[in-house]
Amino acid sequence: MESLSALALAVALALLGLWVLVGRRNLVWKLLGLNVASGGSILFLVALSHRPGARPPILGLGPGPAADALPQALVLTAIVIHFATLALALALVILLTERRHTQDSRKLEEEG
Amino acid sequence: MVAVLLSALAFALALFALTRKRLLLGVIGVGAHSLVLAGLYLVLAAPDVALTEAAVGFGLVTFVYLLALRRTGKLVVAASPLYPLFYPEGERIAGLEWEILERFARWCHRDLEVIWVPRAEIPRLVRSGEAHLGAGGFLPNAEPDLRYTRTLVPTRLVRVRGGEGPLGAVAGEPSPPQLDGERKLFEDAAELAKALARGEVGSALTDLLHLREWVMRDLFPEAEVQVLPEELGFAFALNPEDEELWAGLEEFLAELERRGELAELVRRYLE
Amino acid sequence: MRVLLALALLGLGGLLGLGIAGLWPRPEPQDPEPVARAWGVANAVAAVVLGVRLWDTLFEVLVYVVAMVGVRFFLGGLRWRGELPPVAETPLLRRSADLLLGPILVFALYVAASGHLGPGGGFPAGALLGSALLLLALAKGVERLSQELYEPRLESLEYLAVALLLFLGAVVLIFLVRAPAAFIAANLLIALEVAIGAWAVLHRFASARGEV
């Protein structure tokens, strides 16, 4: 089933993203992992909205069951907000690099 | 069926992207993964979400990462100290090569990180990619897979004779063929100087700039100095596979030379 | 250490799997017809975003604006030290920017204005517009473009769009307006605001060298 594979992918992406977020030392890599993890969470919600044989939730697209419109609506603004917070995080990373000349999280923690 | 294929592709792309060493490949991989994810949303009957994900996740996010990457990133320099080319001064670093590298790093938006290593380690680090550049008291020894920039400061080998005993030299430095034979190797010039002072070696093989440093510190007032005919020069060493860095550094050095700033720097530091 | 992390993540994955299993069998979804018809539009998702959940959307727009203000604040003080390296002009980039800019603009406006009839809406349209502005900046040079666009005026335009959006949202919420006109206006305002915010971020990130 389609939604099942999508759900499995969503969980896998979330776990992969979390692994990278904690595991990698470079700040920008951590942000990339967070990006993938949030992609996974968005996919999770969209997969929940899918029904077998569904069509998009727009009027006039023919008969048959329609996908659930609510999770899709929740996710729509979430995508744009993810971009906004990512931009803010990258701005902070740039500032940090200018001041401390490193993006290594361990070095940043050591030097306080 | 399509959904299963797209899911597998998306996961493979994400795995590929997040296990790269170069950040650029990771960013592009995550962008491609977003695009496949947008296709998956289409299959899952969510066209609004698919359009938004494609526009934001694939477009804006990748742009923002690429633009941020231009202002970050670092240049790792493996160096062995030599006054006045590249030496630590208290908490900071100074020297002719340091100043050139600092300007270069600002020019190509990277931050400099210096690791101090014995001279023999420099080729290994540059070759393995752990360091981008080799600098400092480091004479090109015709290493097989390193690339050298143009000569910054010319010099010559000298042999300092302090007494009887074997010949000492710094491990990794070039040596003229007529002086082949047994010699004691040291990690850096400071060790060599101490050994010469203690009498562990009878003569030391080094170069003009190191000799100048020793003379300025008044280390061997009574030594006999023999200048050898080979002409060498200090330069930066790079990994030959790093085309971009090579091109950038060559262009930068050519510009410095053209504007006469290179000559002025050499004059300022070596007077 | 890594082993611990891997085990923890696998445990988390197991929990998530259990949670998913608990969701089956899923209930029948609501038919989108009543929702869409009640609000007078064809796109049920747009009806939810700008109708049923308008309150949430307004706040999310505010979150976006706050993030953009944050980026301006943090990167505003960065000055470039040293000389600017020369700008590389490629005729290919200028030509393709000239050709593509018009269609992208029109397409973005179409996506925004028809958000209540088909897929799309304000958010992807704003993202497209922001990308188009970045393309223009690539062709012309960031400094020149930001001078021509006069950043403070763009900023006030963005805040004006947000204020209008909030006002419109208040009207819709209080008076329970359900006309497509409100949807179109809201979508256009959102597109404008997202685009200017994205441009602010991109141009601040890019203005290190005066060129992208």
Report on the structure:
The complex is a heterotrimer of chains A (112), B (271) and C (212). With 112 residues, chain A is an all-alpha fold. In chain A, 73% of the residues lie in helices and 0% in strands. Chain A has a single domain (2-110), classed as Helix Hairpins (Orthogonal Bundle), CATH 1.10.287.3510. Chain A has helices at 2-23, 27-48, 69-100, 105-110. In chain A, helix 1 runs antiparallel to helix 2 (27-48) and helix 2 packs antiparallel against helix 3 (69-100). Chain B folds into three domains: 2-70; 74-152 and 235-270, D-Maltodextrin-Binding Protein, domain 2 (3-Layer(aba) Sandwich); 154-232, Periplasmic binding protein-like II (D-Maltodextrin-Binding Protein, domain 2, 3-Layer(aba) Sandwich), CATH 3.40.190.10. Chain B has helices spanning 2-18, 23-43, 47-70, 96-107, 121-128, 189-198, 208-216, 243-258, 261-270, and strands at 74-80, 87-89, 92-94, 111-116, 133-136, 147-148, 153-161, 167-170, 183-186, 203-207, 224-234, 237-238. In chain B, helix 2 (23-43) packs antiparallel against helix 3. Chain C is mostly helical and 212 residues long. Chain C is 77% helix and 0% strand. Chain C has helices at 2-23, 32-39, 44-52, 54-76, 91-113, 122-140, 142-149, 151-175, 180-206. Chain C starts with a helix and ends in a 6-residue tail after the last helix. Chains A and C meet through helix 1 and helix 3 of A and helix 1, helix 2, helix 3, helix 4 and helix 6 of C.
> Which two chains form the greatest contact, residue counts included?
A-C, 43 and 53 residues
Cα distance spanning the termini of chain C = 41 Å
Q: Stretches of chain C where pLDDT falls below 50 for ≥5 residues?
A: 81-87
Q: What's the number of structural domains of chain C?
A: 1
Overall body shape of chain A? elongated
| Strand segment count of chain A | 0
Low-confidence parts of chain A lasting 5 or more residues at pLDDT below 50?
A: none
Mean pLDDT of chain A: 85
Q: What structural category characterises the helix and strand content of chain C? A: mainly alpha
**How would you describe the oligomerization state of the chains in this entry?**
heterotrimer
Helix content of chain A: over 70%
**Total discrete domains of chain A:** 1
Number of helices of chain C: 9
What's the architecture of chain A, going by CATH? Answer: Orthogonal Bundle
Could you name the CATH class of chain A?
A: Mainly Alpha
Helix content of chain C: over 70%
Main sheet specs of chain C: none
Tell how many strands the DSSP assignment of chain C holds.
0
**Strand and helix order of chain A:** HHHH
Output the radius of gyration of chain A: 19 Å
